[in-house]
Amino acid sequence: MISVAAAIRYINAKNTTDAGLTLTSSPFGLADAPLVLDAEYNASGIGEVISICLKPFDKFLFTARYETKVKLDFKTKTNTDDFGVTVNEEKNRRDLPGVLALGAAYEINDQIKVLGEFNYYMQKNADWGKSSELTGNAPLADLAGDASAYAMGLEYKLTDKFIVSAGGGYTKFDYTNKEGYYASLGTFEVVPDDNWNINAGFKYKVTKMLSVNAGYMQAIYKKDQHVNALMAYPLEVDVTVNNSIRIASLGVNLSF
User: Fold this and answer.
1) Long-range contacts of 237-240 (CB under 8 A, 24+ apart)
2) Which of 30, 164, 195, 241 is 20 to 30 Å from 58 by CA-CA measure?
3) Are the C-beta atoms of 168 and 196 separated by less than 8 Å?
4) Based on the domain organization, do 180 and 233 belong to the same domain?
5) 139 neighbors 123 (Cβ within 8 angstroms)
6) Do 103 and 91 share a domain, yes or no?
7) Taking the chain, what is the end-to-end CA distance rounded to the nearest angstrom?
């Protein structure tokens, strides 16, 4: 009826920036001047995971999982910086937030199972460094606020060895100051915002002890998001952003 688990996880992350612009139409007749920013940022860290699984009766399952935040101190490697905005070997914090996740599953019959989950991302508790002077150097994580995700799915057992699944979800971002969050360099690389996602996957039981899982997710964002680029002050610059995320996963389970 009750089981618990604990795990250690290691995160290795790499972000890259490849951007540029060209200064044209000089009033002094100067040639066009291309400016390039090419840099990469690397970090690694360790976190913990604890979980509990409850099965109060045969067809119902409830789970809870807590993942601690992972400290990530990104070290800068500057390849080309015509803007003068990066410092080689400089470190910047961008922690992976802690997560509280709840899930439930109910078996309608021997072939069909319904699943649901809720994930709460504690972003405000993570260290993402400070924002710019335009927002009083407030912590970026405070400006971003927390986020939550909701999902439901359906699992269908085709045979004793082969199971397929499909589902969908919704992610909600609770910004406390969205324009302020984008007042810092680098935040436009990825513009997180409310989105829907659709998912599909399968599980194949190779042997009694070994099974293989595969999954695919497509996130759907609102098109042409508009964000005021406060870092361009006193110029008024409106940035149009379009996001698209696809995730594929493959896993192997070994049971003894």
Assistant:
1) 239/182, 239/188
2) 164
3) yes
4) yes
5) no
6) no
7) 19
Q: Is 160 helix (H, G, I), strand (E, B) or coil?
A: coil
Look up the domain containing 18 and give its range.
1-96
| pTM for the whole structure | 0.81
Cα within 13 Å of Cα(228), Cβ side: 10
Q: Rounded CA gap, 15 and 74, in Å?
A: 9
Q: Are residues 132 and 197 in the same domain?
A: yes
What are the CA-CA distances from residue 101 to residues 67, 151, 182 (Å)?
8, 11, 28
Cα separation, 109 vs 112, in Å, equals 5
Cα-Cα-Cα-Cα dihedral sign, residues 175, 178, 184, 187: positive
74, 11: one domain: yes
pLDDT digits (tens, 9 = 90+) for 137-153: 899 899 999 999 999 99
**In a shared domain, residues 140 and 78:** no
Neighbours of 180 (CB within 10 A): 21
Same domain membership, residue 230 and residue 157: yes
Question: Which amino acid, one-letter code, is at 160?
Answer: D
